[in-house]
Amino acid sequence: MARSIALFVALLLTNIPAALGWPDQPIRMLVPFVAGGTTDVVARIIAERLGPRLGRPIVIENVAGAGGNTGAALVAKAAPDGHTILIATPGQAAMNQFMYRRMPYDTATAFVPLAYIASVPSVLVVSPTLEVSSTTDFLEKMKARAGGANFGSAGMGSTGHLGGTLLSMQTGLKAQHVPYRGSAPMLQDLLASNIQFAIDTVPGLMSFITSGTIKALAITGKSRSPALPDVPNNIEAGIADVEMASWLVLLAPAGTPQQIVERINAETNVALGEPDLREKIFKLGAVPEGGSSRDVALFLRRETERWKRVIETAGIKIE
Questions:
Q1: What pTM value is reported for the model?
Q2: 295 vs 85, 242, 265, 289, CA distance in Å?
Q3: How high is the pLDDT of residue 21?
Q4: CB neighbours of 89 closer than 8 A, spacing ≥ 6?
Q5: Phi and psi (nearest 5°) for 236?
Q6: What is the pLDDT of residues 143-189, one digit of tens each?
Q7: Rounded to whole angstroms, how far apart are CA atoms 241 and 101?
Q8: Burial of 5 by CB count in 10 Å (0-12 exposed, 13-18 middle, 19+ buried)?
Q9: How far apart are CA 178 and CA 152, in angstroms?
């Protein structure tokens, strides 16, 4: 009898998806940006490990547009059966709803959180021609500059836009936002000293910082970045109220069965605990996270409230 029970349990564990009423077919993971960026790279790293753990392949689909809203909307409207999931950044999961006049989904009700993949620190960088050695030096120089400073970002509503806005709000710096079509042209103008500073994610800036092409003044968060251990955090740099970081979470359509949510969450956490996978994420300049689905929900609630205040105070609106 005991042997029969053990055999039954073993068979069940090898076919958990079927036992959950979860048909054995590929999972679509929507990346709401073009291929090659940090979100896309992390998605592929996770999918490679998570697919075998879930017993089916995970197919990456890049659907860019409208600050990530286009791809997120496809997931929001997909069948809630565990076969379509979204890797989301702050824009789609928290910020965009307060900036875009028209949203293709209701952020508060469209998704159920699955897992917290990684936090992605941002860093304050300046043109090397400014010849400043600290955030204090930079702010003093910019406040004395006729017309204030110009800062660049990868586009309206990007984390760089919000980060630069937050810095100017919290420090009293007069700063004009210059949006670009991506980080590459923004960096070209920073190198040419056409703009004075930017706040962008560590992965996108790390090679420029380590080569000395641009100057990093502060990680805009309470912890130093493992990828840039010599760069002070926001408290050490004297800008404690400037906390700006990106992050990556997995979301599924609202109504996805709780058993499937818990299974994806559990297997994602196991994958994130693997040393070699963690090392790959660290090398990108990001930090592996993890936690329960409830933890993700609470985190998203806090981030939503925080950025709602910043966006409404700054009056940022995107048509």
A1: 0.89
A2: 18, 24, 11, 11
A3: 61
A4: 32, 39, 68, 159, 246, 247, 248
A5: -60, -30
A6: 999 999 999 998 899 999 999 999 999 999 999 999 998 888 999 99
A7: 28
A8: exposed
A9: 5
Structure tokens at 152: 């660049």
> What SS3 state is found at 138?
helix
Q: Is the dihedral of CA 181, 64, 87, 272 positive or negative?
A: negative
Query: DSSP label at 16?
Result: H
Rounded to whole angstroms, how far apart are CA atoms 165 and 241? 12
Neighbours of 176 (CB within 10 A): 13
* pLDDT tens readout for residues 33-88: 999 989 999 999 999 999 999 999 999 999 999 999 999 999 999 999 999 999 99
Which DSSP state fits 26?
Answer: P
Q: Reduced to 3 states, what is the DSSP secondary structure of residue 116?
A: strand
- Sign for the pseudo-dihedral over CA of 63, 65, 67, 70: negative
The bridge status of strand 215-219 relative to strand 111-126 is antiparallel
And the tokens for 206?
Answer: 């790390």
- Which residue has tokens 């090898």? 14
d(CA 309, CA 312): 5
Joined tokens for residue 21? 């009423």
List the Cα angle 311/88/73 in 5-degree steps.
85
Q: Which two tokens stand for residue 180?
A: 């670009």
Phi-psi category of residue 290: left, alpha or beta, with phi > 0 → left and psi -120 to 50 → alpha: left
What's the CA gap between 120 and 227, in Å, rounded? 11
Best CA proximity match to 174, nearest among 197, 147, 138: 147
Judged by DSSP in three states, 151 sits in strand
